[in-house]
Every structure is written in structure tokens, then in C-alpha cells.
Amino acid sequence: MPEAEESRIAVVGVGADGWAGLTHDARARVLDAEVLLGGDRHLGLVPDVPGQVRRPWPRPLADGLGPLLAEHDGRRIAVLASGDPFVSGIGSTLAGLLGAGRLDVLPAVSSVALARARMGWPAESSAVVTVVGRDLHAVLRELAPDWRVLVLSADADTPAALAALLREHGYGGSAMTVLGDLGAATESRAEGTADAWTGPSPALNVVALELRGPVVGSWAPGLPDEAFEHDGQLTKRDLRASALARLAPQPGQLLWDVGAGAGSVGIEWLRAHPTCAAVAVEADPDRLARACRNAARLGVPRLEAVGGRAPEALADLPAPHAVFVGGGATAPGLLDLCRERLLSGGRLVVHGVTLETESLLAAAYAEHGGELTRVAVEHAAPIGSFSGWTPTRTVTQWSWRKP
Predict the structure, then answer these.
(1) What is the extent of the structural domain holding 283?
(2) C or N: which end of the chain has fewer Cβ atoms within 10 Å?
(3) Residues sharing a CB contact under 8 Å with residue 62, sequence separation 6 or more, in sequence order
(4) Do residues 270 and 183 share a domain?
(5) How far apart, in Å, are the Cα atoms of 109 and each of 23, 82, 83, 93?
(6) Angle (deg, nearest 10), helices 237-247 and 264-272
(7) Residue 192: which of 166, 155, 170 has the closest Cα?
(8) What 3-state DSSP class applies to 240?
(9) Could you tell me which residues come within 8 angstroms of residue 306 by beta carbon, excluding any fewer than 6 positions away?
(10) Is 215 contained in some domain?
(11) What's the rounded Cα separation, in Å, for the pair 56 and 37?
(12) Average pLDDT over residues 146-165
């Protein structure tokens, strides 16, 4: 093999059919490698090579992968991955760590492609959610009548746990098809509904869901207040929608939700796109735990929780693309810190209900510009045998975009 190839890493996708399904080029890279890395199952699918070092993935992967690669730097390394390494696979992790330029990726047919082929589902008509090493509650973000979802299972227990979760959220009538060992001689298919699901399931499986249930939420901002468990510390629906419109969630971007309360703004930010990230910063531990429960129930268990008071609690957080301050804006230096830490083009939205906070926001608006708005919302409510308007507390909202 040419010298220039020695510093590169071959990432070889392996299907459920193992060695028999690999191309000639993929086999050659595996056999030529001085070091072969992969999961225990994948390492067991390829023939032994005299003198080849074989190492399973470290646990936890995030902490051990860098040192493992550094230990064998300069040697010919091949990595075994499931199917397409860039479909919820190790390829994405390696590219993030080393850069895609160091990788030679030889994909196999992904389990997603095989599942769609078996179900006859066009890619544009369904979503894919992986729960491999992730919280199963992520599936709940996709709940919608007549929507199709492919769930990449963690293990044999996933289908039964998924069925229970669907029943809990009113989607017990959903059709479930468990596709086991896709592409292998042992490939199997089992069908039923979440209400009646019993299992068991193969260890390697993909669950195809045809969802049947009620409208439980919206991907547009402004979920009903009743969707959140709270103790009154909640950014209410109309104000939340207004704030999120100005925070402008974007794929892959990070939000700080400062003074998170029930976590509603951070949660709706996460629901905007599967790659959004959010940190809920809250001093009250009960409220922080409540925000995490809300996040799981609404399909975004990846909400990161940070306990402590701002601005001190913000010191070690990565720089955000957007910041929402729903409470505690008068803390000395907080708004200045948020403006400074924002990335270029970042958005800051601050709410205030007290005269002191309103004065602070008016001064910030005078100095930095942006948009200053007072939001007053009234709801119809009974007055005796008639109806009248009941006002909520007026909120002053300052929004600002960093150049």
C-alpha cells in the first residue's frame, strides 16, 4: 500500500451478512490493516489475520476514542462500522474528531435503506430516529397522526419499551413492524400494534412505526401551557412564541435558557430541529428536575441541565448562538456577559415583569438598539353569567442581534 495511505483510516461498513457481504475493496482494507477497531460483534464477523491487533471500542467511547487512535497513530488502521458509517454511526464521530479528510469510507447498505425497501416507504415520507445509546423518549418528538418513523433500536428490548411508551402517550393504535437482522439469512419480520405488542425481538432490529393517535403538540412554537409540568414559573404560551420567533432556532445551534423555570423555551427550541442543542440554567434544583422531565415527555431528552445562578453558572458553557433570559435579568453583569459570549449573528431575548427589569431593558435598548416590546395578553373568562377579558401581567421584551 502506498506510504500516503498509512496515515489514513479506512472505515468499513459491515451489514448483517458480515464478511460475505463486503466488496473486494472493503475486504482488502480489513485484511491489510495492522490495527482493526470495532464493536465485539463486528470484530467477530471477519476472519483472523496473523499479527493484526484487534481492539474493541473503549467505554465510554467519547473519552477513550482519542487516546485509542493516538496509541496506534502511524499504523494502518481499519474501523468496522454498521452498514453506512454516516447513518448514526462511528463515521460521524471519527469525522468530528479527526476531520473527514483522514477517512476512507467504504459504506455498506444501511439498515435505514433496507428498512425503507422492505416497507416500501419513500425517504421523504418518513423520519428516522436512533435510540442507540440514546434516550427512547426522543421518539416522542415525532408523534403525529399518520406519520411514519423508522426507529433504530438499541437492543432486543427496544420494541417492547417503545410500545409501552406509545401506549402511555395515546398512540397505542400505532402499527409496529419489527425488522430483524436486515440483509442476513436470518432476516425476520413481525407485525402488530403498540397496544398488543409482546415481543420478543431479535437483538438487531429496526422498528417501522405508522403512527395512529391524537394531535399532541406542534413543531411551531407555542405549545399549550398545559403541556408542561410547572409551579407557575413558566414562560406562557403567547410570550414563548414571541420569544422563539426572535430567537430563531437554526439547525445545529445552541441556546442558553437562563432562569429556565419549567424549561419551556429551551424545550421548544430543541423541538424545532433534531440537531438543535440547549442548556437549561436554573438555580432551583426542583425546577431543574422538572424541566428535565418536561423535556423527556416532549421528545427532547437531550436538554442539558446546569444547576446554579447566572452569571456564575454560565462561565464554563460553550458560546451560544442564542440566549433567552426569562428570569433574573437584573443580576449584575448578566446581560453584558450574554452579549459578549454570543457568537456572531447571535440572538438575545430578555423578558422582564418588574419595574426594575423594565428600566434595565430600556437602558439596554437605548445603548445597544435592537427591539423593545411590551406584550400584554388578555384571555376571555367568565364574569358572572357573562364573559370578559382577564389580563395577564404585562411583559417587557428586549431582543437584540449581535453583528
Answers:
(1) 225-401
(2) C
(3) none
(4) no
(5) 11, 9, 5, 19
(6) 50
(7) 166
(8) helix
(9) 279, 280, 281, 282, 313, 317
(10) no
(11) 6
(12) 97
